[in-house]
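Assess this one:

_____
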Amino acid sequence: MLTDTGAITITEKARMKVHNLMAEAGISAPEYFVRVGVKGGGCSGLTYQLDFDNEPQTGDMEFGDEELKVVCDMKSFLYLCGTELDFSDGLNGKGFNFINPNASRTCGCGESFAV
């Protein structure tokens, strides 16, 4: 995993969940990768996007390692620089969480943010 300042990282718990989801969907790395992004919307103004993809785009930023790649378009990277992707399966909520140092506020559900 890249450790450069500003890299988008993924915790081991999130990595394991991604591998499980990929297996359930019948897809595998390295052909597929996790694409993270940002789009306008949500109660705080911007929402996170998370999906599997196998088609790199011009200008994509790549993070991770040969086991699991995390890819982000340049525009989204401006909002996600330094973000850590985690997974929670606790009583307070289940799902992927973006730990984003650039967010000035987030909504209660954690799916949207503002900078």
In short: The longest strand covers residues 33-40. Helices lie at 12-25, 74-80.
